[in-house]
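To whoever picks this up:

The nightly regression suite flagged Aconitate hydratase, mitochondrial as changed. Nothing in the input moved, so I suspect the structure step. Input below, exactly as stored in the fixture:
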Amino acid sequence: MSFLKPLTRTNRSRWGTTLRTLATEASSPHPIRDCTRITPPYAKLVSNLEKVKRVLDHRPLTLSEKILYSHLTNPEDVKPVRGQTYLKLSPDRVAMQDASAQMAILQFMLAGMPTTAVPSSIHCDHLIVGHKGADQDLVNSIENNKEIFNFLQSAAEKYGMSFWKPGSGIIHQIVLENYAAPGLLMLGTDSHTPNAGGLGAIAIGVGGADAVDAMANIPWELKAPEVIGIKLTGKLNGWTSPKDVILHLAGKLTVRGGTGHIIEYFGPGIETLSCTGMGTICNMGAEVGATTSLFPFVNSMSSYLHATGRGPVAEAARQHAHFLRADEGAHYDKVIEVNLSDLEPHINGPFTPDLATPLSKFAEVVKKNGWKDEVKVGLIGSCTNSSYEDMDRVTSLAKQAVEKGIKSKAGFFITPGSEQIRATIERDGQTGVLEQVGGVVLANACGPCIGQWTRDDLDDKEENAILTSFNRNFKNRNDGNATTMNFLTSPELVTAMSLSGKLTFNPLTDPLVDASGQEFMLQPPYGDNLPQNGFIPGNLSYTPPDISHPNAAIQINVDPKSTRLQLLDPFGPGPQGEFEDLQVMLKVKGKCTTDHISAAGPWLKYKGHLENIAHNTLNGALNADNEKVNVVKNVFSGKDGAIHEVGREYQALGKPWIVVTDHNYGEGSAREHAALQMRYLGCPLILARSFARIHQTNLKKQGVLPLTFADPADWERMHGGDVIESTEGVADLVAGRPGKNDTPEGGEILLNVRRPDGERYVIKALHTMSKDQVDWFKKGSALNAARG
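Regenerated output under the current build:
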């Protein structure tokens, strides 16, 4: 299958440059599209909501509640209670990126359906490595991943899914440009799916098994979230950008503060934000653990829909505007007010997205920590900040540098979010200006943001600082180097600080030096929210038709000898009674994200091969007992080994094992491999101080029982080498009998533990299993339960 078109040239632009571009088969702005399949069924949703409102005695509802409850499969039969009720929902759409789509498709194939029950799309964005620049990187990545791309395209054609080829763009930008709509309920197999909240959708990041539910017409289950209201007042000005709203909130809420909540924005300040700016804010809401984030329908959304050829969606939304905003008097579980006029630019990091520092204090932090005053590389783009507005504003800064005869002192990379953005900013000249200051344009893909980055500028393990407009900055994430410090900020600050080359540079107070040695101050960035001459689609060969029809004649072939793809065998059933003799193999200390549990980067090539990717299981986890990463003791042989090795050894001995973990276990990506791999290697239970939402659900989907300490301090008592001799409460759970101290949120499980020296103690743990989730656990996985 061919994925590329040749290069051609464009005319001069508003920025005064002439640039080459990939062949553009349509140079005029978007025509109005057939929006039948992308317009939410507003009349039906409003009707469903009226049924729920009657049950709730017509109390005022938040926008989050209105959209969720209108998608209930049984609106007459449930009285939702936030934080307690498990909702059975009917999503409107599914979107999958290429790394996670592999396992989702392999699971969907087991469902035996001829097509998907809801419109679904596959986006090739994660497997493209950033290195030399877009042209060569795309060719190399297609060649290196052709087995995967061909598999995904064949599956899309067979089941009637839309297939966005490599080079088309990043999933979340593509969704915003093509599929998102106010009032939509969408699932995406990526944690930053909430980006679509910038267009008023409830878009939730999930694992592949959740996506399969929606595609297989199985009601999707979600515990009714609580709602955090963010009241925005004032207006952004100067160097402050929409990114600073969520950087500031991440500092307030922390990486756990949004867990179990939807973040809903309201207040007069929302009318001052662009649609893509709101998308940026919603995108990074994933970093505080929120289920999703969203904004009510406002004029900028309508403008964006019209600009992207979806005027009919905008008009339908406008006719139902009352449905697409919170009711007057709606109650939020918590309210935070942010005055945009007073907000300061922020820089967050390193190594965690919630370590927020106002720009005015950042130089002091750099000096206090003894960090080298150097920006090694600046990177702008990613799914968080790759809109036309972002690129136009940074170009206004780069243009000033060009006029003063200077270039970026740091390496400088630009990732357009989509082929539409790439083509439009080349036509309008932004790309040329950014290249003139030393910028290298990478492919329309995730690239360095998710570890797909080949660096030539760094000695092994050299401590260095990079500034990015990305959303996540865990250790090792971007380049595999544990000493690379990734500081998250706006694309405007990335650009300014890259021009200076200094980590302490503050463009509000510090001058740059021009080619003649004279000091000058950068003027604040400016730019258009939308292109004055409209968007152009660029290379249409990347783009699927508006409607994709299934073709049962298509054969999906998986080579049994492949190292990249492996057909799945269903997991065996879960326990029918209490657990006995569970070996505590590992006690994890500190942050353990899905990057620690199942790393990305070079491991992405094994996302479709469970046996091979299981070799990276917990390879970033810190063992609390020996202070070593990815080293545990096999208590039966007395030898140390990597975690996956010891797990396989225990499995071969018929010894089930568990992991004891710290707070917010599974934070970060939606990757279900972090759950699949544990189950595959013989781990039936995880005991944590607390869980991240997506990962906890992914564990349940794969038949792993997630438990939390009733007293988080009990984490200190347990160690690797301990044995859970028996449990009390699991038998009641699987039998459907009431357990001890059951609540609407779950129940209690007792763990009877023996230390290696023979001492015994009891740990009280809690579960949050719903009736359906217990069935998944009994039958070995959610897919097993669905198949009967």
